[in-house]
Amino acid sequence: MDKESTPPADDFTIRCPRLGHQITFSYCRSETLGLPCSKILDCWFEHFQVEDWLRKDMSTEDWEKTFQRDPKPKITSLLELIEQAKKRGEEKDR
After folding, report:
1. Smallest Cα–Cα separation from 15: which of 50, 39, 36, 49?
2. How far, in Å, CA of 68 to CA of 4, rounded?
3. What pLDDT is attached to residue 1?
């Protein structure tokens, strides 16, 4: 059976190896300041044709920013995630 060519709906979750809990594809798609998580290809390839879908959906510039750069140290990524969560919390409080 061929893999699906579109992402699964948000009722489908997988375990995130970075965060340690269940997440949706839509979360992974915009996890890094609006860009996909750099591990999205590794995590979702078993569930659908993620690379093909992202290449069609993303600009060349965004693809390169996401997948063709040196990975950040884990502490930097964690601090960025904390900042993003703080901002979302502040926006909800308004």
Report:
1. 39
2. 25
3. 42
Cα separation, 93 vs 82, in Å, equals 17
If DSSP codes are grouped into helix, strand and coil, which group holds residue 18? Answer: coil
Q: Which residues contact 44 (CB under 8 A, 6 or more apart)?
A: 7, 14, 25, 28, 50
Specify the long-range contacts of residues 36-41, CB closer than 8 Å, at least 24 apart: 36/66, 38/66, 38/67, 38/69, 38/71, 41/67
The better pLDDT of the pair 55, 3 is held by 55
pLDDT in tens, 22-39: 999 999 999 888 899 989
Q: Tell me what pLDDT residue 40 has.
A: 96
Here the tokens at position 16 are: 């995130």
**Per-residue pLDDT tens over the stretch 65-89:** 898 877 678 888 889 889 989 988 8
Q: Distance between CA 94 and CA 91 in Å, rounded?
A: 5
